[in-house]
Amino acid sequence: MMKPKYNTKFELLMEIIAMLYLFVTLLLANLNLIDSKNFLTPPFIVWTLMWIVIGFNKKKLVGLIDEFVIHALAKANKISMSFLMYSILLFSAILISPFAKSIILSRFQIGICLLFILFAFTIIRFFSFIYYDRKGI
Q1: What is the Cα–Cα distance from 85 to 89, expressed in whole angstroms?
Q2: What stretches of the chain show up as alpha helix (H) in DSSP?
Q3: Phi and psi dihedrals of 25, rounded to 5?
Q4: Residue 44 half-sphere exposure, CB side, CA atoms within 13 Å?
Q5: Are 91 and 113 in contact (CB under 8 A)?
Q6: What is the separation, in whole angstroms, between the first and last Cα of the chain?
Q7: DSSP 32-61
């Protein structure tokens, strides 16, 4: 019987799926398609279980990551963290700009925008890791 192979790509893909699931669930809750009045809704439980799976996989990956994967992941993290920093800086500058006084955003809309930035962050991190992993840098 073969053991399932867990690697860094799988971990990054699981993070994308978890962020996408949270993003879609919050949008459906905002449209009143999901009951969001109680705390323990099925989407919340599924999202929590996904993060538990990601956490267990990280513990399995501790001894399996070689030096090349660490180097490629460091480059991917550098690129994605730069994107995250600049996008949140730009978003906050737009929100506090005197030119944007006519833009009225609720807390939920601001949260959705920040969640979209985090979703884009995970996608950029995943694809830049794949790029560096295949290129061999």
Answers
A1: 6
A2: 8-30, 42-61, 67-96, 107-135
A3: -60, -45
A4: 9
A5: yes
A6: 34
A7: TSS--SSS--HHHHHHHHHHHHHHHHHHHH
Contacts of residue 64, Cβ cutoff 8 Å, sequence gap at least 6? 6, 7
The per-residue pLDDT for range 3-19, each reduced to its tens digit, is: 444 577 877 887 888 88
What is the C-alpha separation between 87 and 122, in angstroms, rounded? 13
* Average pLDDT of every residue of the chain: 79
Report the distance separating Cα 133 and Cα 47, nearest Å.
28
CA distance 73 to 65: 10
C-beta of residue 73 within 8 angstroms of C-beta of residue 8 = yes
Cα–Cα distance measured from residue 35 to residue 17, given in angstroms and rounded to the nearest whole number: 22
CA distances from 73 to 4, 21, 84 (A): 22, 24, 16
Q: Which residues contact 128 (CB under 8 A, 6 or more apart)?
A: 75, 76, 79, 80
In the chain, the percentage of residues whose pLDDT exceeds 90 is 23
